[in-house]
Design a protein that fits this description.
This protein is about 25% helix and about 20% strand. The protein contains eleven helices and 23 strands. The strands form seven sheets. Strands 1, 2, 3, 4, 5, 6 and 23 form a seven-stranded mixed beta sheet that branches. Helix 1 runs parallel beside helix 11. The longest helix is centred in the last third of the chain and has 26 residues. Bound molecules: flavin-adenine dinucleotide.
């Protein structure tokens, strides 16, 4: 088997791998990026057809390349996001090799670096950056058995409403994925049930500025460590249909049935926690806290932004919130499919190195692993809230490149 030697090996050719390549090149560090499929593959084949970026084109990009032919305030369709990264790789002449999957990564026996096994041979490297994504393995909770006769898919396998069998749909999870998929299904004429857990819900725009701008000036993208309740709190935002604040009350007024957290399934009946009202009101509180912080910032900085008192008007709770449904007989309700928008787990099972805690989480400080020469990039909260997003991974890559170069 052939053995190739490189100084630094970057595994993964998504936004994180490319940001890493950019910063390594600018510091003169010789490296190779390997990607098992194509550049930014997840944007092409692991997301639904109509997905657009959650942030506007002026924001969801790297600092040194704009989207071409997209209005700065518009939301780039997912294929355009993938095309953007392909063009970016070309712009920086990234040394990237596609179609190469690292099947196993070991420390070399003599301690002089790492050994990556791929189908095309072995690559040995002094340093390795693992940029294989914040969302690696879709998680479907073991609630409804396969033999229940209900089609079940994860949001990463959802493409469009036509893919699902006729009938009503239960969408579980009301983060950005769940809420956007539920909305699309309802607009296509389906009866939709949406199970809503705890979530944050910033306004799409306020006083003429997008929420990504507000989070920036308020320093919220840079929040360093999540408090324990925040780490798993999903954020419900959408750039779909031009970008609107996620409005659960409006979705209910349009016919959607909102439910609490999906808990158990027995004898064809799904049971839901009595927490819907709490979750909706907590989302409202988060929404209002962003308005409060934005107003205070505008006063403090003397910004002349149009006031928007109507943004504080919140409609009354819909019936499904006031009088929540705690159980549903799936057959009686005509529910033939479930879309689980329930998030992802990490999967570093191919990394045969003692760099993880007992729960399989990488042990690192800002991406610098406890194993000398091994780095992680692109993980949620790697260094701050923005770490897993296009804009944030750039900063983390810069930090790691400095560490590698010195
Ligand atoms: C539905 C959805 C919408 C999102 N929308 C936005 C948005 O609008 N704006 C934003 O900023 N962020 C968004 N994100 C978050 C984040 O930007 C994306 O998840 C992004 O894909 C992360 O990029 P990455 O490079 O870190 O990881 P990935 O895109 O997951 O890239 C990792 C790459 O590594 C490759 N790989 C994995 N294992 C190996 C291996 N062993 N050998 C070789 N290659 C390997 C994979 O094929 C993949 O291409 C979204 C996430 C999701 C799930």
């Amino acid at each position: 088997m052939s053995v190739e030697n490189v100084e630094t090996l970057v595994v993964g050719g998504g936004q994180a791998g490319l940001a890493m390549s950019e910063h390594l090149s600018s510091r003169g560090v010789s490296h190779l990026v390997v990607e098992r499929h194509r550049i930014a593959e997840r944007w092409r084949t692991e997301r639904w057809d109509s997905l657009v970026a959650n942030g506007p084109a002026w924001h969801d990009r790297f600092p040194n390349m704009k989207f071409s032919d997209i209005d700065l305030d518009a939301f780039a369709p997912k294929e355009r996001v993938a095309d953007y990264f392909v063009a970016y790789a070309r712009q920086i002449a990234a040394p990237i090799r596609c179609g190469v999957e690292v099947k196993a990564l070991h420390k070399k026996a003599d301690g002089s670096g790492f050994r990556a096994e791929t189908a095309a041979g072995v690559i040995e490297a002094k340093k390795v950056v693992l940029a294989t994504g914040p969302f690696q393995r879709p998680v479907i909770p073991a609630v409804v058995p396969a033999e229940a006769g209900i089609t079940q898919i994860h949001s990463n396998a959802y493409r469009n409403p036509r893919q699902l069998p006729e009938g009503a749909v239960l969408v579980v999870g009301a983060g950005s994925s769940g809420v956007q998929i539920a909305d699309e299904l309802q607009r296509s004429g389906r009866k939709v049930y949406l199970s809503v857990g705890p979530h944050n819900k910033p306004p799409r725009r306020y006083r003429g500025k997008d929420f990504v701008w507000w989070l920036g000036v308020l320093g919220l993208w840079d929040v360093k460590t999540p408090d324990p309740s925040m780490e798993h709190t999903t954020i419900a935002v959408s750039g779909a249909y031009g970008g609107n604040t996620v409005d659960f009350r409006q979705l209910a007024a349009d016919g959607m049935t909102l439910l609490g957290r999906a808990e158990t399934f027995k004898d064809g009946v799904m049971h839901f926690a009595p927490d819907l009202k709490k979750n909706i009101h907590r989302g409202d509180a988060d929404y209002l806290s962003v308005l409060d912080a934005a107003d205070a910032y505008a006063v403090r900085e003397g910004l002349d932004l149009p006031e928007e008192p109507e943004a504080r008007r919140i409609a009354p709770d819909p019936r499904c919130v006031v009088d929540p449904i705690l159980q549903i007989n799936m057959r009686d309700a005509g529910i033939t499919s479930i879309v689980w928008a329930t998030g992802y787990a990490l999967d570093f099972s191919w990394v045969r190195i003692d760099a993880f805690d007992e729960r399989g989480r990488p042990k690192h400080d800002r991406g610098v692993s406890t194993v000398p020469g091994l780095y992680f990039l692109g993980l949620p909260w790697l260094s701050r809230r923005a770490s897993s997003f296009i804009w944030g991974v750039w900063q983390d890559a810069k930090y790691l490149a400095d560490h590698i170069a010195t």
